[in-house]
Amino acid sequence: IPPDNAQNDEANVKVTVTIARDGTVVSARIIGPSDDPGVDASVQRTLERVKFIAPFPEGSTEKERTYTINFNLKAKRMLG
After folding, report:
1. Structural domain boundaries of the chain?
2. In angstroms, rounded to a whole number, what is the distance separating the alpha carbons of residues 80 and 35?
């Protein structure tokens, strides 16, 4: 959820999230802050809330997967 006090409607925050095979979130961190403290704090709170996602598909051999995700405030607002 975008913060109401966002100062930059085009704020982008880049994060990395590492997931274990069983779906456990091993790590999640901001690697590219937006220069808008409110947006960065909102993304950080979101990262801290997510502890688990669906496990990898059966037959997957990787121990972990790391994803890079871009949170884009403008896109979020356009989608509603």
Report:
1. 12-73
2. 23
